[in-house]
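The material for today's practical consists of a large collection of protein records. Read left to right, the backbone structure tokens trace the chain's path through space. An example says more than a description, so a record of this kind follows:
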Amino acid sequence: MPAAMVDTQVHDFDTALKTAELQGPGILLLLFLGDRISSVGKSWCPDCVRAEPVIYKVVNEAEKPITLVRVYVGDRTTWRTPDHALRTDKRFKLTGVPTLVRWENGSIVGRLEDHEAHLEEKVKKIIS
């Protein structure tokens, strides 16, 4: 079943999250990624480039309805700032991208960090 995908930036993330939470039954995943470089069509983040195809494959093959909110954290310089909004957000405390989060009832119930978000079996486990 193809996933519903929603793209958002840091500045409108909370609104997008609230909207996604209201979309009804199904799994809600948040995928935090480095921004895409328009001239190459890929993220500046090599781990994101490696993980994205795996994550999209798994969520689109899932038998359950999934909403995937892709949250673009900014360019490399913006992301590296210690006081980046998503690094300091008490709900997420991001340390790296990509980070894949399963979100239920206002909290994290599953999480894959940058070093494991490309592993198909772990992505399957987070949605099972």
About this structure: Helices lie at 13-21, 46-61, 76-80, 85-88, 120-127.
